[in-house]
């Protein structure tokens, strides 16, 4: 199992809600897209105000980065494909 930032939707919403967010993405192309999206959002006055500097994206493996962090209040994991509860 891996923990990645994905497309950053949850990270964006959490930052807009007032939380300081560190989004960790391991895939270099997805990270580049996230970093560019964040750069563009910070250049937009309205989005920049909403984000308030609370969102950062870093490239790397979450299992290597997380142990080195201090003062972490929560880790958000979203099961992209939860187990099915019903069968046909």
Radius of gyration: 14 Å
| Nearest-integer average pLDDT | 90
Order of helices and strands: HEHHEH
Q: What percentage of the residues does DSSP assign to strands (E)?
A: 5-15%
Low confidence ranges: none
Q: How many individual β-strands?
A: 2
Widest β-sheet, arrangement of strands: 1-2
Instruction: Describe the global form.
Output: globular
Binned, the helix content reads 25-40%
Number of helices: 4
Secondary-structure class: alpha+beta
Euclidean distance between termini CA atoms: 27 Å
Largest sheet, if any? 2 strands, parallel
Strands, helices and their partners?
Elements: H1 9-16, E1 21-25, H2 28-43, H3 45-51, E2 55-59, H4 62-65
Parallel strand pairs: 1-2
Kindly describe this structure:
The protein has helices spanning 9-16, 28-43, 45-51, 62-65; strands at residues 21-25, 55-59. The chain has 88 residues and is of the alpha+beta class. The chain starts with 8 loop residues before the first helix and ends in a 23-residue tail after the last helix. The model has no long low-confidence stretch (mean pLDDT 90).
